[in-house]
Amino acid sequence: MRHLSKRAPGSRAPGRRPPLTLAIPALLAVALLTLPLIGVLARTSWGDLGGHLTRPETTEALRLSLLVSFWALGLSLLLGVPLAWLLARVDFPGKAVVRSLVLLPMVLPPTVGGVALLLAFGRRGLLGPWLEDTFGLTLPFHTSGAVLAATFVAMPFLVISLEGALAGLRPRYEETAASLGASPLRVFFTVTLPMVAPGLAAGAALTWARALGEFGATITFAGNLPGTTQTLPLQVYLLLQEEPEAATSVSLLLLALAMAVLVALRGRWTGAPPRGGADRPSSPSRAAGPEPTEDTVDTPDAAAPSATGGEPGAPPERWALHADLTGFNQLTLDAEPGTTLAVVGPNGAGKTTLLRALLGLTPRAHAALRLGGTDVTSLPPHRRGVAWVPQDGALFPHLTALANTAYGPRAHGVRRAEARREAQRWLDQLGVGHLAHRKPAQVSGGQAQRVSLARALATRPRLLLLDEPLAALDQTTRSRVRHTLRTHLGGFGGVCLIVTHDPVEAVSLADRILVLDEGRAVQDSAPAEVARHPRSPWVARMLGSNAWPGTARDDGLALHGGGVLIVADPLSTGSEALAVIAPEAVSVHRERPAGSPRNVWPGTVREITASGSRLRVLIASERAPDLVAEITPQAAAELGLTDGTSVWTSVKATEVTVVPL
Ligand SMILES: Nc1ncnc2c1ncn2[C@@H]1O[C@H](COP(=O)(O)OP(=O)(O)OP(=O)(O)O)[C@@H](O)[C@H]1O
Questions:
Q1: How far is the centre of ligand 1, averaged over its atoms, from the C-alpha of 330 (Å)?
Q2: Would the CA dihedral through 540, 544, 549, 552 be positive or negative?
Q3: Residue 112 burial (CB < 10 Å; 0-12/13-18/19+)?
Q4: Do 229 and 135 belong to one domain?
Q5: 221, 242, 265: which is the final residue of a domain?
Q6: How far is the CA of 536 from the centre of ligand 1 (A)?
Q7: Are 266 and 207 in contact (CB under 8 A)?
Q8: Residue nearest to atom 18 of ligand 1 (CA)
Q9: Distance between Cα 328 and ligand 1 center (Å)
Q10: What are the residues whose beta carbons fall under 8 Å from the beta carbon of 306, sequence distance 6 or more?
Q11: Is residue 572 in a domain?
């Protein structure tokens, strides 16, 4: 499934040297960064190192440094994680200003930061007197002041790192979780946070390291009181004036701590993405740390309308669909319970927008939606009972197939053990029960599709939306999954909408085909009717027919593409119509045919492609639009057809179906 390149992207091709004008400054930069470190190592008095580091004032400063830096990390997580989420996910006025404010402490000289903190929280600052009078809290010359200073300078590292990770996580996973019934808070804790865990860990490590090394803001705001605000960096500064060897030893300790953090990060901060990063399925071996489960948040959303908890084989509840769409999509949809509707249309026709409007996920179109007897229009996505299977399934990569499938029932308040039993039953029904304990990265595309269908059905939705469910599968898997889909949609008591570009899928799975164009319904009929009387050239071509629009005149149809087509059906002169010619109705000859057909054109073979056991031949002509004929390989061989062969085509007037437009 995963493409493995032999050479890391961006690595140098063998034998190519980097230009010296770039290599020399780069080496100088490395030297500039390395020499001070070498200086510390060279000047360390190794014999006295133990003595310097075990002095009471040093161990006290170390204790204080750890205390202050971990408090600063805790505060940063508490405040910075929600801020990063807000910046990444919510559009609000002044967002750019807030982002600049977050960045400011990273570029501000720390001493200036300290002065600013004094002016805000100092004894004569804006909030200082109030803090003192109300809580008896004096931040300067107090450990809490050192914590505040360290948080001020370190929190931006967490916010920026996490915001980047969140921006890289496509919202599809979170939207799918909502469609399974999870509230926004539940989605945040069970999907968003686990999926950005590497970015969060990297940001947290950097934040801690920055807080540990904080000096300028602390000394300016909180002072340099041994045992209260004198952290290790402040002690280094003092020792440098009195005892340079001891200062070097303490510097080495700080250096070792900082290096340990960087080694642990292994380049995550600098953009080298970890394997199985935020938006990719996790690698099978990613098992470090407590595995997040679907049970992280245990608040059931009892108000959600979906009926969960029944047996997969139990008689389904019945939900009719009525939707009035406005905005980009303008149409009304009505469907009886159990109807499967294929939604087709050219690119940009509004298929995805239609699904997202039904989910309540887009401002581009609005759906007044009634499911069964309930009007769900004003409900948020997680309470509508509308389940969505996006194109690639969007299985949560950090959860097993079982936990993925139990996610919906859990979100609806079903107890853990029961939810897992139910999930197992759904997986069994879809023939993937044996994969229950595998992560999404460990199953094939077809198996993943079945798991995501099981996950959607396990929420007992009132409306099921499938976005190109078979698009990513190969032909063999496609027909197997199509069969599975047909079996399970047969027992589904709600309405199912399937977006597809595949005519076979549309005809074989759907009771009705809804053809969209520019957000409007061009046709909404049974597959046989759409095939017989397609109401747009696009849908006729999608179903494999030749479709020529034209204007009726006395002797036939004046084709928009040039030429005249003789038809058998009577036409009212001047009306617009679509002539539909099945490829099997087109005859191909090497000589001009004599006799009955009245539509005869000379042409040239442009392309021959296989279509099942027959061949489709594309023929271009100066006297008519391009025409597709379907013939047997034997006939093609007898006619000696290859690209560029000159031929004659003929179509009987009685074989032309005319659809008024
Ligand atoms: N976020 C968006 N902002 C602005 N326009 C958008 C946005 N998403 C889609 N559109 C536009 O809305 C129209 C409908 O898009 P939509 O994605 O619903 O089409 P579609 O039928 O699903 O197309 P496709 O078959 O290519 O997936 C298109 O013109 C598209 O360019």
A1: 14
A2: negative
A3: middle
A4: yes
A5: 265
A6: 20
A7: no
A8: 350
A9: 9
A10: 181, 385, 408, 412, 459, 460, 461, 462
A11: yes
- Domain limits at 516? 321-531
Give, for ligand 1, the residue of 175, 329, 351 to mutate: max count of ligand atoms closer than 8 Å to Cβ. Answer: 351
Q: How far is the CA of 209 from the centre of ligand 1 (A)?
A: 45
Phi, psi (deg, nearest 5) at residue 117: -65, -40
Beta bridge partners of 467: 499
Asked whether residue 506 falls in the same domain as residue 550, the answer is no
Which ligand 1 atom is at minimum distance from the Cα of 516? 21
Prediction ipTM score: 0.95
Q: What's the gap in Å between 350 CA and the centre of ligand 1?
A: 6
State whether 457 and 604 are in the same domain: no
| Closest C-alpha among 359, 553, 549, 548 to residue 462 | 359
DSSP-assigned beta bridge partners for residue 658: 579
Distance of alpha carbon 88 from alpha carbon 66, whole angstroms: 31
> 329: CA distance to ligand 1 center in Å?
11
Q: In 3D, which of 247, 337, 280, 293 has the Cα closest to residue 57?
A: 247
Tell me which of 246, 265, 284 is where a domain ends: 265
Among 76, 160, 186, 269, residue whose Cα is nearest residue 194: 186
**How far is residue 218's CA from residue 210's CA, in Å, rounded to a whole number?**
12
Name all residues whose Cβ lies below 6 A of ligand 1. Answer: 328, 345, 347-353
Question: 2 vs 65, 274, 441, 470, CA distance in Å?
Answer: 44, 15, 9, 19
Query: What CATH code is carried by the domain that includes residue 596?
Result: 2.40.50.100
What pLDDT score was predicted for residue 282? 35
**How do residues 459-474 score in pLDDT, each as one tens digit?**
989 999 999 888 777 7
Beta bridge partners of 551: 558, 576
- Best mutation site among 172, 328, 329, 388 for ligand 1 pocket (most ligand atoms within 8 Å of CB): 328
Query: Do 394 and 436 sit in the same domain of this protein?
Result: yes
Integer Cα distance of 78 and 580 in angstroms? 65
Q: How many domains does the chain divide into?
A: 3
Which residues are bridge partners to 558 per DSSP?
551, 564
pLDDT digits (tens, 9 = 90+) for 589-627: 988 888 766 789 899 998 888 877 888 888 988 888 888
Q: If you measure from the C-alpha of residue 207 to the centroid of ligand 1, how many angstroms do you get, rounded to a whole number? A: 40
* 411/371 same-domain check: yes
Burial of 434 (0-12, 13-18, 19+ CB in 10 A): exposed
At 33, list the tokens: 């960064």
Residue 309 lies in a domain: no
> β-strands 546-553, 576-581: how paired?
antiparallel
Backbone angles phi, psi at 480, to 5 degrees: -65, -45
Rounded CA gap, 216 and 231, in Å? Answer: 12
CA-nearest residue for atom 6, ligand 1, is: 364
- Closest protein CA for atom 4 of ligand 1: 364
pLDDT in tens, 14-67: 556 888 889 999 999 999 988 888 888 888 878 888 887 888 888 888 888 889
